[in-house]
Amino acid sequence: MLLALLCIGIFLVQLDVTVVNVALPTIRTGLDTGAAGQQWVVSGYMIALAGLLLVCGALGDRIGHRRTVLAGLTVFGCASLVCGIAPNIELVVAARALQGVGAALLLPSTLAVITDQYVDSAARARAVGIWAGAGALALVAGPVLGGVLVNAFGWRAVFLINLPIIALVLPMAWRMVPRRRIAHRQTHVRLHIGAAFVGANVVSGLMNLVGLGTLLALTLYLQEHLDQSALRAGLELLPVLLPLAVLGPVSGRITARYGSRLPMSFGLALGAIGSFCLLAVRSDSRYGAVIPVEIGLGIGMGLLTAAVVHAAIAALPPDRAGLASGVNNTARQAVGAAGVAGYSAVLSHSASFTAGLHTLAWVGGVLWVVALGITWLTVD
Questions:
Q1: InterPro entries annotated for this entry (predicted)?
Q2: Do the domains spanning 1-178 and 193-379 agree at the CATH topology level?
């Protein structure tokens, strides 16, 4: 039950990454904003999240992760309410940033509590796989749920849907998340940062840069280039999102048995193939042209996520779980935010949408290969 509760925390954080994507066109028209305002609805959340993850992870190590889990749920819920009732784009962006604060409190703390509760490395790897799968399930649910909510109730519903979930989870977290005795570290126990920790976090960042950037590009391709509805676009993203949810626990079991390098290597190779498949998209292509991209990206990230998170957590002592989680999630979210902004800029400034996709195919494919080399040099 505790693991399930912690998985709901990561689910909420990840849900608000993708559930908003399919609502962007209606937010743009509903609040009479432009492309910049549309982009800041996504980036405001991710930048705040990325900028505070490290601080919040270390804060949890110091004051206890139970407190940061509860605070994160409370802040996230309040910010979701403001997003849902905001009368203009400026307040939506500000509330999205506040959502990012709540998510930054919540995300590293849920992973740190798992690290506290699962002291055996293999059991921890399996638990991290389930946790990562829950986050990936949110990525699956986001576009579909967002499409249903936007079509039925309008864009405000994608934020207000968080409120009943938090109303249910918050009292459960108060009762179930254990109080952890905070260890007093000796001033002469110096933290050693090795190549494995650095390598795992660099790969985490590159994974989100290409993964989230490509996901945004695919969403815009389906909705704005092919003129699909929000619901249809959400359903057509399932080939990339379903493997993310299904393969997280599988990757955790593989990592528990063989270590992180094997699933990371296969995941990065498949991600590179998926990115290079964007080169096959032409100006007159339809949805079928991006299915190989979606499958390569989905299976690749599904194998990669749990393995790379476990590699980063295992590289530091257990009493630094909040710090390790904060650094890893900072790497993923900060570089992921850069990926969203960078991919959006490339598409906006290219001669055509398909020309932009071809540029991103080379960028993404090369970065996956670079990450594969880093993996073999640093991760066991």
A1: MFS, MFS_dom, MFS_trans_sf
A2: yes
